[in-house]
TrEMBL record:
<dbReference type="InterPro" id="IPR027417">
    <property type="entry name" value="P-loop_NTPase"/>
</dbReference>
<protein>
    <submittedName>
        <fullName>Phosphate transport system ATP-binding protein</fullName>
    </submittedName>
</protein>
<keyword id="KW-0067">ATP-binding</keyword>
<keyword id="KW-0592">Phosphate transport</keyword>
<feature type="domain" description="ABC transporter">
    <location>
        <begin position="6"/>
        <end position="246"/>
    </location>
</feature>
<dbReference type="InterPro" id="IPR003439">
    <property type="entry name" value="ABC_transporter-like_ATP-bd"/>
</dbReference>
<dbReference type="InterPro" id="IPR003593">
    <property type="entry name" value="AAA+_ATPase"/>
</dbReference>
<dbReference type="InterPro" id="IPR017871">
    <property type="entry name" value="ABC_transporter-like_CS"/>
</dbReference>
<dbReference type="Pfam" id="PF00005">
    <property type="entry name" value="ABC_tran"/>
</dbReference>
<dbReference type="InterPro" id="IPR005670">
    <property type="entry name" value="PstB-like"/>
</dbReference>
<keyword id="KW-0547">Nucleotide-binding</keyword>
<keyword id="KW-0813">Transport</keyword>
<dbReference type="GO" id="GO:0005524">
    <property type="term" value="F:ATP binding"/>
</dbReference>
Amino acid sequence: MDQIKLSAHSLNLYFGEKQILKNINIDFPENQVTSLIGPSGCGKSTLLRCFNRMHDLSSDARIDGAIKLEDLDIYDKKNSVTEIRKRIGMVFQKPNPLPKSIYENMSYALNIHQFPKNEIPKLIESALRESYLWEEVKDELKKPAVKLSGGQQQRLCIARTVVLRPEVILMDEPCSALDPISTRKIEELIISLKKDYTIVIVTHNMQQAQRISDKVAFMYLGELIEFGSCQDVFQNPQNELTKNYVGGHFG
Ligand SMILES: Nc1ncnc2c1ncn2[C@@H]1O[C@H](COP(=O)(O)OP(=O)(O)OP(=O)(O)O)[C@@H](O)[C@H]1O
């Protein structure tokens, strides 16, 4: 039986009058990669952003239902967003390093969370190793992060998330700005990270979803249409819409 790490229960989201997410119920198993797939505009990124309260600052967003990290209610006002984002990290579509050195990119959140100063170098090395970047940057940690290649910048953004030891990592099309070789490296990285983290990723790339996912969720017009093992969703979809989408008939 899968151990459930993160879950949404009867989740609805509205932007103004418009309902974007419709009664989403989903369980993300621990130490697995789950891909959210579906045609453009179906609500994948909007759903992903619900999991670490990224809509909090959007005045026209209204959410009802519940999201739980194990037993923790993510939307319970007494839980701080900073603490939730430490436990549920996020990596965005475009690599977005701070305009600072590689080292400062890594130390920034550790300082905010008041990790002991003497532990910081070790934590940084370990997260950079875990993110397949250490060997490439160990001699130039003072270099501006923006001077790294796009793929290296994205691995740095992953390392910067990993350094806080989150439980869940959310990724919103993390390879869409990258070339095929950098994309492959990130895919290998995602597969290796799942032994320590639960990963939820939005992807448009069906080959990528098949290469990296344990579970796949297919969404359409704000609804979760089908959720199952990667093999089942791609080889034996139950719903006609899923069948057409994974068969490349629309999207
Ligand atoms: N801040 C916002 N205010 C109003 N509507 C929004 C906002 N953000 C997204 N939407 C709308 O919500 C719907 C879902 O968008 P979302 O970005 O989640 O889809 P998606 O499946 O991730 O699409 P894509 O694959 O193109 O990135 C779209 O109709 C979009 O226009």
